[in-house]
Amino acid sequence: MKTYLDCYPCFVRQALEAARYAGASDRQQRQVLNQVLDLLRQTEDGLTPPEIGDRVHRVVRSITGIADPYRAEKDQSTREALALYPRLKALVSGSSANKALDTALRLSIAGNIIDLGPAPQYDLWTVVERVLAQPLTIDDRDALKNALASLSPEESLLFLADNAGETVFDRVLIETLNEIYGLRVTYAVKGGPSLNDATVEDARAAGLHKVATVIDNGADAPGTILAHSAQAGARCSPAFSRVFDAAPVILAKGQANYECLSDLERGVFFLLQSKCPIIARDLGVPLGSSTLAQL
Amino acid sequence: MKTYLDCYPCFVRQALEAARYAGASDRQQRQVLNQVLDLLRQTEDGLTPPEIGDRVHRVVRSITGIADPYRAEKDQSTREALALYPRLKALVSGSSANKALDTALRLSIAGNIIDLGPAPQYDLWTVVERVLAQPLTIDDRDALKNALASLSPEESLLFLADNAGETVFDRVLIETLNEIYGLRVTYAVKGGPSLNDATVEDARAAGLHKVATVIDNGADAPGTILAHSAQAGARCSPAFSRVFDAAPVILAKGQANYECLSDLERGVFFLLQSKCPIIARDLGVPLGSSTLAQL
């Protein structure tokens, strides 16, 4: 997805929010603001929003000297989600056999509300109930099921993770996929802290290493910034790019992965809640809807 | 009020919105964005938000070549408010004698929702009903009544107007003040178009010239930018500044006047709805509250 002009006010807002999460002084906040205004003025055309967001959040980390401004929030999100884990499992096991995958997919979408970029306010269980009841506005479940059924025992699903805490909801989906398809899953997280995105540490805290092969994409940037999506070059490692290119089926969580990969025409399955009006419009769905779209 | 860092995302958003009101092409919108980012980067410390907003909206008018981007919206606001005028008058005349001024003050506050800067979405009559029912969070009505009662027949109330359409609600208040106090009112509007602020043309369209002496402040800028509130110098004319300095009682409508004049300690009565979270916090009231505060 291209960066729309409407993304610019949001970059400025996010920079200030991230600086405050990092405990920045007033003077540091002003420095962040100034440097981000400079940065936004100088960005070349053709970048996706996460490529610019990456630079914005690097400014915050550099000026504040805080390598992981969202550390405490990520830990808390994971703890809160783990506390719900038994209830999430009960929802899946309480579903009829042909509804279990549907429930698990919806729970993974519900977990996508744990996103401190666009929407800091939510009640987690209210979101779970809403997403379970809500129809998918784009519904490529049949295509996903066909793709998963076609995987050979040697192949694995590449699952692009999004935020810490959301990882627990993804774990429930992966466990369900395992039970239904006997599926191997590679769960790719970030190579370092960026916003509240999950790293290997966050994924392990949520128990993902017990149900999937956890790898990192080599980048401390939001989304999945590959060479072919950026004039500014890849942020992901060459090793990760090879995994990506070779993956027979890719399931990508969240808005930032959509923003990075929506123009690839690679058949990626995007699983997300549209929390940002600009992304919702780009995707052609109402704000606040749940989507499973193959593009 | 000083400009908070949180005002900066809002300046960028307002610039894009104003450019679109002016019918700007994609290319012009990008030019507006770039020039506003430069401008924000270069603003000196100590300016109030309307002083920066003034520069932002001048960029929009300059790049688009549209002298009055909100012309159509202002006309529509005035028409909609005039259509409500008989109902507003009925509300005042239906009030008991000692409640008439209270009702008229609240209607003037209700009209302050007509503001295309911070909050483009509202239903006018719903707002009227809400503000009539809502307690004033800061309530300096007694001080205002005392000040008005102390005016000699030669003196007049200086009423600093805000937006087009809101003018009709102010007219109802001024007519009520006239009936109760036999008061003379000087109604000061903007010297030229800025946002959807009322000009002499807008005030006349709302019939203000029938109930008050309409003057303009000489500035095509939001709020009331006097020499003593700005490092960057006055935008209001010397003639208006003399009227301001000599005024025995000043009633200032809306957020921009608060932002410009709140630090004067001049005893100005501010009559507004707090539609912006930053202004609400500065004023010490909840968002969405109605206020009559003497400062």
Please explain how this structure is put together:
- The structure is a homodimer of 295-residue chains.
- With 295 residues, chain A is α/β, with parallel strands linked by helices.
- The first copy, chain A, has helices at 7-21, 26-42, 49-64, 71-93, 100-111, 124-133, 141-149, 166-181, 200-205, 238-246, 254-261, 277-283; strands at 136-139, 156-160, 184-189, 213-216, 249-253, 269-273, 290-294.
- Chain A has a seven-stranded mixed sheet, with helices on both faces.
- The first copy, chain A, starts with 6 loop residues before the first helix and ends with a strand.
- Chains A and B meet through helix 1 and helix 2 of A and helix 1 and helix 2 of B.
Structural class of chain A: alpha/beta
Share of residues in helices of chain A: 40-55%
Shape of chain A: globular
How much β-strand is present in the residues of chain A?
5-15%
Specify the biggest β-sheet of chain A. 7 strands, mixed
**Quaternary assembly:** homodimer
Mean pLDDT of chain A: 94
The helix tally of chain A amounts to: 12
Uncertain runs of chain A with pLDDT below 50, 5 residues or more? none
Radius of gyration of chain A: 18 Å
Quick rundown:
The structure is a homodimer of 295-residue chains. By secondary structure, chain A is of the alpha/beta class.
Topology:
The structure is a homodimer of 295-residue chains.
Chain A: H1 7-21, H2 26-42, H3 49-64, H4 71-93, H5 100-111, H6 124-133, E1 136-139, H7 141-149, E2 156-160, H8 166-181, E3 184-189, H9 200-205, E4 213-216, H10 238-246, E5 249-253, H11 254-261, E6 269-273, H12 277-283, E7 290-294
Parallel strand pairs in A: 1-7, 2-3, 2-5, 3-4, 5-6
Antiparallel strand pairs in A: 6-7
